[in-house]
Specification:
Number of domains: 1
Order of helices and strands: HEEHHEH
Radius of gyration: 17 Å
Number of helices: 4
Shape: globular
């Protein structure tokens, strides 16, 4: 049986690794098989696959400032790695791991994709109705982990505590 601290670190790094892997594998499949800016209906047309290369942050904030998001993502990754091991509950460790997975998933794109190292475009491909911005698995992980954190903090919970 693993010690509780070891279990929390396992879940933190495990969920981060799973999200990074799924995000990068799906992005590779999408880039290999879809034509950019062509809509592919999925789930009865409720969701569409629509490949774009994004040089902005979430919700298209900051077009053309990719290198700044690379720096911010790098700092966020190091910070999450530092604080992730200090989480005192599995639920907080899972949320921190999901956030880390999402941040690293998009950071990998910024580091390895064209046009250049540190200024690469993030691969986005999930389009939903209502003119919502196009996003990816990493974005979903970031959004969900951040939303759950806000809800928990507003309900009086202290970050990282049970």
């Amino acid at each position: 049986m693993l010690k509780p601290e070891t279990q929390r670190i396992f879940w933190f790094l495990g969920i981060a690794t799973a999200i990074i892997t799924v995000d990068q594998v799906i992005k590779a499949i999408v880039v290999q098989n879809l034509v950019p800016e062509v809509s592919y209906p999925l789930i009865g047309g409720l969701v569409h696959l629509y490949l774009i290369y994004n040089d902005a942050a979430a919700f298209s904030i900051g077009f053309g400032a990719t290198y700044i998001f690379t720096i911010i993502s790098s700092i966020a990754t190091l910070t999450l790695l530092w604080f992730g091991r200090k989480m005192m509950s599995v639920s907080w460790a899972l949320m921190a791991g999901a956030l880390l997975g999402g941040v690293v998933g998009n950071l990998i794109d910024r580091l390895i994709r064209p046009p250049s190292f540190g200024s690469g475009y993030v691969v986005d491909y999930i389009q939903i109705p209502l003119n919502f911005p196009i996003f990816n698995i990493a974005d979903m992980a970031i959004f969900i982990a951040t939303s759950l954190t806000v809800i928990r903090v507003l309900s009086g919970q202290q970050i990282g505590r049970a």
